[in-house]
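Async update (no meeting this week)

Hi team, since we skipped the sync, here's where things stand on the single-chain job. The sequence we agreed to prioritize is pasted below, unchanged from the tracker. I ran it this morning and attached the output directly underneath so nobody has to dig for it. Comments welcome in thread, and please keep replies under the output.
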Amino acid sequence: MERQEIEVFLTLTEELHFARTAERLRLAPASISQTIRKLERRFGAPLFVRTTRHVALTPLGRQLRDDLGPAYAQVQAAIERTTATARGDTGELRLGYMSAAVAPRLLELVCVLRTRSPGVDVTIAETTLADLYGPLRRGEVDLSVLPLPVTEPDLTVGPVLLSEAALLAVAADHPLATHPVITPDDLTGQTFLFAQGLPEYWIDHHRPTPAPIDPVPGFQEMLAYAASGHGVAIVGAQVEALYPRPNLVCVPVAGDPTFDYALVWRTEDLSPLAATFLRHIET
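Output:
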């Protein structure tokens, strides 16, 4: 049976009236009659008893309705779920983020998405500084909020969600700890701490002046090294509130540099759900 034949038959079993069935399906009444006669010829027996004032199912018609109805409902449900997923109205959206500072903004946007698209499930995972692009490239997340710049041929950068001041983190007893503002000349002879695995262009963007680099395993190690006097680090202003250390001081840098955090996704693989999330941000 073709889909229209199924729809005509099942609708007529509910309405038991040819004109109302035609109106409901937006078809001509003659088309309903032709479809039913065609089915009855195919099965070799009547499906409905018709009089000028009454339409009723025959035993064969009731059997076909009972067998066909649930199966057709499952097919319709599958089509609706697939359509909703393709529109980005349902399914699972996996989000990543790097930096606790951006988490409140991200959660705010997730709440908006859940309100507008209640069929969407959202999972959120934190990304480490030493593995910025790994979760995206491994397909573990659909979108990730990452610190700029991101200049990768396989990744696309979207809207910026947060900007915060970039500060110089130094030990409390470091000579630079008492400076009101750090200038490039102040950094002569200093060694900068950066997490291992960061792209060279990312380091060059955030390093205020050319200087030696000491790679460390990750963000927490970077703070620990700086606090113990084994180098200086460029950090976001969030460090003072979220990662306070009694022996670590954060000093403003001349020129008011910032850390900007933007949504990033795989260029060739933006899912419908991810596109929906981006639309909600824009509106």
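Quick observations from my side:
The two ends are 45 Å apart (CA to CA).
The first helix runs from residue 3 to 15.
Reply here if anything looks off.
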